[in-house]
Amino acid sequence: MEADIDRILISDKELATRVKQMATEIAQAYAAPEGLVLVTILSGSIIFLADLIRQLPIKMKIGLITVSSYPGSSTESQGAKLLSDLNVDITGRDVLIIDDILDTGNTLRFVRAKLEEKNPRSVKTAVLLRKPSKAPKDVTADFVGFQIDDVFVIGYGLDFDDHYRNLPHIGVLKTEVYESAAS
Question: DSSP 3-state helix, strand, coil percentages of the chain (rounded to 5)?
Fold first, then answer.
């Protein structure tokens, strides 16, 4: 797997440090006694979520929603498609959407609209990665781990054709890997 990486963009140590900082920022933003509902978008954000919740010193529930935007070996978003709906009641609750990456904004826009139909008290977003050159102005993230260039990244939950999620760092996938898969 490592041979398919052009370069490591964010090391495991940098990820751990920034996730801990994000947890502090999130905990300071939420003080409701009933806690927070973290809604994670599967599957890419699962490792980020696992590390984040271990650092959050607040009461919380976890909700899961599955959305596909990059099916198979696609490196361009194909539009967000709901695969499984939210598994917890968020009516009147503070909700924090957890996602791995904000690039086209399609997934966050789609999920936010779905969740707002369920009448939460508030909805905010936390993303591990944001591509400022691609992220549309109408889709923002309240908490951002890292700003990155417009490159195709893998590792720490992010995948290409359901591979590489288990890498402990974030790497840039070699162009020839995804170009050969497309042919």
Answer: 25, 30, 40
Closest CA to 152 of 178, 127, 126, 128: 178
To the query of whether residue 99 is one of the catalytic residues in this protein, the response is: no
Q: How many CB atoms sit inside 10 A of residue 43's CB? A: 18
Euclidean distance between CA atoms 7 and 53, whole angstroms: 28
Instruction: Give the HSE-up count for residue 60: Cα atoms under 13 Å, Cβ half-sphere.
Output: 22
pLDDT at 177: 83
What is the rounded distance in angstroms from the CA atom of residue 29 to the CA atom of residue 157? 26
Residue 145 buriedness (CB in 10 A; 0-12 / 13-18 / 19+): buried
CATH tag, 12-151: 3.40.50.2020
pLDDT tens track for 64-80: 987 766 544 445 555 66
Return the pLDDT at 76.
Answer: 57
Which one from 4, 103, 138, 161 is the annotated catalytic residue?
Answer: 103
Which residues of the chain register pLDDT less than 50? 71-74
Q: What pTM value is reported for the model?
A: 0.87
What local confidence, expressed as pLDDT, does residue 22 receive?
A: 97
User: Which residue do the tokens 């696992």 mark?
Assistant: 50
Distance, in Å, from the CA atom of 145 to the CA atom of 159, rounded to the nearest integer, reads 18
